[in-house]
From TrEMBL:
Protein name: Uncharacterized protein
Composition-biased stretches (Basic and acidic residues): 15-28
Superkingdom in the source lineage: Bacteria
Region (Disordered): 1-46, 430-453
Length: 453
């Protein structure tokens, strides 16, 4: 049925009451069916009463903006950091620590961005490398193989064998030599494991506390930051300052200033951590290797002598009492200690990072693609006066990688000279954020979590 035509706008006589005139309307195109409101079934939408619209306040406050946040359970909380540090199995604990550092690094990256690595990013790979020493992977075999061809050990060992034959004993078993090396390695591994635990328990909690405090924030709040920093103990000023710099960096828009704030924070955490680690490093590097070797070898000889019947063992016991056996063992022990330190240094003095392994005793190589510039764009020149002063204090070759190699890792100043250039040259490497075992962790950590090598 055609719609009614619109009449010209002229005066007309009103129609009869029995035929009321309806307003004219334009043609309406078919529309999709609409579910009627309650109480309007069967009533034309054109004839239904209009829906009353709710008033809209033109000055209604907008919902508060929300800054970046981190998914709960994707990183260890401060309490969970303590739980991980309390694990008794040093191998499983190291794995959990390494994963924990990585997930804290990732959580920090969500707040501060991943254009700059944070200290926990670097700690991930240092902890993973420590795990090699903690597990003692391949060390005893490498040590034993080297001993077989070491002139410093071979000659003196043959003299010990001559003495043992005169005492009616067989040659010194090579198994005893390997056992001595293994025992010395266990001493070194324990010192490294203790340091790994101590640093994570202390610094890991602070990274977790930072994430818990500042996630969701959209702008720097000086009062809130000051309240947060008041939670640091008075004897940890470097940590307090470092996390204050992280808080500033979180909201810094200038990429140069942000990179410098991150480097300043990383260096201060690094200096604090390495100072705390000094006793553990000295214990690992200066482990009483000679005493360990001598004790193991002497115990083997004594066991053989005690197995001899009387009076065949009298000469041997006299040789032990008069020091003849010690005198023969001294050159062997010296040679073994020399070989062990060489092997242990090779194991300890390297850092495997994504893309390769760094030998800490050598000068730090420039990152790939930065052979001429050495440092990433935002760190090629340093403007921040406080960062300049700290680099001047710690860097023995400013703006250069020459002379960065640490010949004695037991010296704090040599370690820091290497570390600050490691931080500066690799701070923008995105591969450092890769998970060390191929996947992110979940928290809390199950006590029976499988080990990952």
């Amino acid at each position: 049925m055609s719609p009614p035509k619109i009449r010209p706008n002229v005066s007309v006589r009103p129609p009869e009451p029995r035929e009321p005139l309806r307003p004219a309307r334009n043609e309406v195109k078919p529309q999709a069916p609409v579910t009627p409101r309650p109480g309007t079934s069967g009533v034309s939408r054109f004839e239904a009463p209009s829906v009353r619209q709710q008033p809209v306040a033109l000055n209604a406050p907008a919902l508060p903006a929300r800054g970046p946040s981190v998914t709960p359970g994707s990183y260890p909380t401060a309490a969970q950091v303590r739980d991980i540090a309390a694990m008794t199995d040093p191998v499983a604990r190291n794995q959990a620590i390494t994963q924990g550092y990585s997930d804290l690094s990732n959580a920090m990256g969500k707040l501060l961005g991943t254009e700059n690595a944070n200290w926990s990013t670097f700690a991930t790979w240092a902890s993973k490398q420590a795990g090699v020493s903690i597990r003692g992977e391949d060390m005893p075999k490498v040590f034993t193989d080297l001993l077989k061809g070491a002139d410093a050990v071979g000659g003196p060992l043959s003299k010990v064998d001559d003495l043992l034959r005169k005492l009616g004993l067989p040659s010194l078993p090579l198994g005893d030599v390997a056992s001595a090396g293994n025992q010395a390695l266990q001493n070194v591994s324990k010192a490294i494991a203790d340091g790994n635990k101590a640093v994570f328990e202390e610094v890991g909690q602070e990274f977790a506390r930072f994430v818990e405090t500042f996630q969701g924030d959209t702008q720097y709040d000086a009062a809130k930051t000051q309240q947060y920093l008041s939670g640091f103990p008075a004897d940890k000023p470097l940590l307090k300052e470092a996390f204050g710099h992280y808080a500033q960096a979180m909201f810094e828009k200038d990429p140069n200033k942000k990179a410098e704030l991150m480097l300043l924070a990383n260096n201060k955490v690094g200096l604090h951590e390495q100072t705390q680690l000094q006793p553990h490093v000295e214990k690992a590097l200066n482990s009483p290797v000679k005493d360990t070797f001598r004790d193991v070898l002497k115990q083997g000889i004594e066991a053989q002598l005690n197995a001899l019947p009387f009076p065949a063992n009298l000469a041997g016991k006299a040789a032990l009492k008069t020091g003849v056996v010690d005198a023969a063992l001294n050159p062997v022990v010296d040679g073994m200690a020399s070989v062990f330190r060489r092997v242990a240094t090779e194991h300890m003095m390297k850092l495997a990072v994504p893309g390769g392994a760094l030998k800490l005793g050598n000068d730090l190589p420039p990152p790939p693609g930065m052979e001429s510039t050495l440092f990433p764009p935002h760190l090629r020149t340093i403007d921040d006066p406080e960062l300049k002063a700290l680099l001047g204090q710690l860097d023995k070759s400013p703006d250069s990688l020459t002379g960065t190699g640490a010949k004695d890792w037991g010296k704090l100043d040599q370690r820091m000279n290497y570390i600050i250039d490691l931080f500066r040259s690799r701070q923008s490497d995105p591969a450092l954020f890769d998970p060390p075992f191929g996947q992110r962790g979940t928290y809390p950590v199950a006590p029976s979590a499988p080990r990952v090598s």
